[in-house]
């Protein structure tokens, strides 16, 4: 199993506000783009793939923050016709509180993996970037 990876960082203007925001998993789910419905740990989203609307179902199966290390670990499983995408994101607040450094790894599986891989990689990576950008905007404004 080979994992795809995307990572980045953003500046923290208000450490307390950032920690309060990421401390609530509902804030995280609220930043996932194109959500049409969400319950405790599950959601549905509509995405466009090759110009066609596609509904995906997702599950937030892990949301843990370590108060000692300020590391947030988020696990998502997203399912669509013929494919399952497992996504793990780890975010760490730097010791001096100036930045959040994030690292996302994901794996695509399922019978349509080979056929849809480039499309699913593109949609997954854009969704990760958009989610992180939302978190950044909501913690810095």
Q: Quick recap of the structure?
A:
The protein has 141 residues and is α+β, with helices and mostly antiparallel strands. It is built from three helices and seven strands.
List the helices and strands and how they pair.
Elements: E1 4-11, H1 15-22, H2 25-31, E2 35-38, E3 42-49, E4 52-66, E5 71-80, E6 83-93, E7 99-109, H3 113-140
Helix pairs in contact: 1-3
Which features does this protein show?
single chain; 141 residues; alpha+beta; Alpha-D-Glucose-1,6-Bisphosphate, Chain A, domain 4; seven-stranded antiparallel β-sheet; 3 helices; 7 strands; CO_DH_gsu; Carbon monoxide dehydrogenase subunit G
Notes on the protein architecture:
The chain is an alpha+beta fold and 141 residues long. The protein has one domain (4-140): Alpha-D-Glucose-1,6-Bisphosphate, Chain A, domain 4 (2-Layer Sandwich), CATH 3.30.530. The chain contains 3 helices and 7 strands. Strands 1-7-6-5-4-3-2 form a 7-stranded antiparallel β-sheet, with helices on one face. Helix 1 packs across helix 3. It is globular.
Question: What is the first-to-last residue Cα distance?
Answer: 39 Å
The level-1 CATH class = Alpha Beta
CATH topology: Alpha-D-Glucose-1,6-Bisphosphate, Chain A, domain 4
User: Would you list the SSEs in sequence order as H and E?
Assistant: EHHEEEEEEH
The percent range for helix content is 25-40%
Q: Any idea what the radius of gyration is?
A: 15 Å
Number of domains: 1
| Beta-strand residue fraction | over 45%
CATH superfamily membership, which one? START domain
- What number is the mean pLDDT? 92
Query: What structural class do you assign from the helix and strand content?
Result: alpha+beta
Identify the CATH architecture: 2-Layer Sandwich
Main beta sheet: strand number and arrangement? 7 strands, antiparallel
Protein name: Carbon monoxide dehydrogenase subunit G
InterPro entries: CO_DH_gsu (IPR010419), START-like_dom_sf (IPR023393)
Pfam families: COXG
């Amino acid at each position: 199993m080979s994992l795809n990876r995307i990572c980045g960082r953003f500046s923290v203007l208000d450490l307390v506000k950032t920690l309060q925001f990421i401390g609530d998993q509902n804030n995280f789910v609220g930043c996932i783009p194109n959500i049409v419905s969400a319950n405790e740990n599950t959601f549905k989203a509509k995405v466009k793939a090759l110009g066609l609307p596609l509904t995906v179902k997702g599950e937030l199966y892990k949301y843990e923050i370590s108060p000692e290390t300020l590391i947030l670990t988020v696990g998502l499983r997203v399912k669509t016709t013929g494919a399952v995408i497992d996504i793990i994101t780890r975010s760490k607040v730097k010791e001096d509180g100036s930045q959040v450094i994030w690292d996302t790894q994901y794996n695509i599986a399922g019978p349509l993996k080979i056929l849809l891989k480039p499309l699913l990689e593109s949609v997954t990576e854009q969704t990760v970037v958009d989610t992180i950008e939302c978190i950044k905007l909501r913690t810095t404004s």
